[in-house]
C-alpha cells in the first residue's frame, strides 16, 4: 500500500448479466485514513441507470487472526454535491478489501427516483485507469490571430502583419499545434514583400 496520498479506481459488480456496475474513483489519504471521490453506477438493461455521487468516508486496517492477513474496512457515504451540502445522502457503502485495495467484497445502496436500492456482497476488482492527455498549457488561453491577419492583409499594412506573425511565433515556440498555419503566414508575408 502507498503511504501518503494515492488514487485508486475500483469496479464493483455481482457479475450478473445486466446488473448495475459501480465504479469508484477514490483518493485515499493514508495519514488521516480518509477517502473521497466519485461513485458512478451504470446499468444497461431496463430501466437504464446512470447514477453519480460524490463520496467521502474513512477506512481502517484489520488483521485476520488465523492468517495474520491485513484487510481494509471501508465505509463511504455520498450525495450529489458532497459532504458539506444540505442535500440528503443518496449513497452508502460498507465493505472489506484486500490490503492492496484491489479486491474484496462490499454491500452498497443508492437512491434513485426516491427509492433505495441495495446490492449485497458484490465483488471488488481493480479497474483500469484511463489517462487523458494533458494540454501543453491548460490554463493559458491561446489567442487566435485570424482576424488580425485578415485586417492587416485587407489594409495592406505589412508592418502590422509582421507584428501579428511575430506574436504568433513567440507563442507557438513551445507548441507544435499550429506550426503549419504559422508557416503559411510566413509564406504569405514573403509573397507580400516580393510585390
From TrEMBL:
Residues 143-194 form the DUF1843 domain. InterPro entries: DUF1842, DUF1843. Residues 4-116 form the DUF1842 domain. Residues 151-195 form a coiled coil. It comes from Pseudomonas frederiksbergensis. Pfam families: DUF1842 (PF08896), DUF1843 (PF08898). This is DUF1842 domain-containing protein. Keywords: Coiled coil.
Amino acid at each position: 500500500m502507498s503511504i501518503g496520498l494515492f488514487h485508486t479506481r475500483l469496479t464493483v459488480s455481482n457479475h450478473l448479466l445486466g446488473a448495475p456496475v459501480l465504479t469508484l474513483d477514490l483518493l485515499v489519504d493514508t495519514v488521516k485514513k480518509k477517502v473521497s471521490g466519485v461513485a458512478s453506477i451504470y446499468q444497461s438493461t431496463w430501466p437504464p441507470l446512470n447514477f453519480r455521487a460524490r463520496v467521502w468516508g474513512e477506512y481502517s486496517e484489520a488483521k485476520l487472526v488465523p492468517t495474520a492477513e491485513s484487510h481494509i474496512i471501508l465505509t463511504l457515504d455520498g450525495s450529489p454535491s458532497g459532504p458539506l451540502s444540505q442535500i440528503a445522502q443518496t449513497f452508502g457503502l460498507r465493505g472489506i478489501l484486500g490490503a492492496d485495495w484491489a479486491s474484496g467484497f462490499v454491500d452498497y445502496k443508492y437512491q434513485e427516483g426516491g427509492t433505495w436500492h441495495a446490492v449485497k456482497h458484490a465483488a471488488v476488482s481493480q479497474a483500469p485507469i484511463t489517462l487523458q492527455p494533458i494540454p501543453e498549457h491548460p490554463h493559458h488561453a491561446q489567442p487566435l490571430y485570424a482576424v488580425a491577419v485578415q485586417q492587416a492583409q485587407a489594409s495592406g499594412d505589412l508592418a502590422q502583419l509582421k507584428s501579428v506573425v511575430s506574436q504568433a511565433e513567440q507563442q507557438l515556440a513551445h507548441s507544435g499545434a499550429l506550426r503549419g498555419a504559422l508557416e503559411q503566414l510566413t509564406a504569405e508575408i514573403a509573397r507580400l514583400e516580393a510585390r
